[in-house]
Amino acid sequence: MTEPLRVLLADDQTLVRTGFRLILGADGIDVVAEATNGAEAVDAVRRTRPDVVLMDVRMPEMDGLEATRRILTGMPGEPRIIILTTFDLDRYVYAALSAGASGFLLKDVTPEYLAAAVRTVRTGDALLAPAITRRLVKRFARHGSDTAALHRDLASLTPRELEVLGLLARGLSNAELAAHLHLAETTVKTHVARILAKLGLRDRVQAVIVAYETGLVSAGAGEAADRS
Question: Of 166, 226, 219, whose CA–CA distance to 195 is shortest?
């Protein structure tokens, strides 16, 4: 029997935590701990080892960004962190994604999407459309040292891997990449896995950020691709 997903809720609003706990519980997802600030979240993660953390950005004492950094630095590879925010272009969201968060959700998310999001990131997938990442990169990249921007040397990538990274950053799925490059989807997955490994990235969200940060792809080019 498959073990239920284990989630930690970190938000300073009691009603938000209560609502999310009820939604997740109804979908068979266990909420193993709650935290009202970032410091409590870091401690609770160490004690309970959840699979996924739903982390509010703005909390007292320690915000969600610093908590995300500490958790992912101290426990690389786990847990997966989803950032909760009221605004889809919050500069702290960009910094948290750069620090290793697997995606973000707006707090008015539907119950069905909340549960699906938790399951998505647990499998290792990223929870963020590349188009939204581009907006975040375009608006917040290089706007101060607190953005925790990723800087990677792309010289380790082969020409094919650079091509895959550029297309991935424009929003193509593995299936679309396979069709565009006339490759098997399993081959595309191998290329993506190698890109992440060579650049030391957690998931596709960080790959998109790196593609724009390094200038491999420009925001304008990505927007043109969206309209095509």
Answer: 166
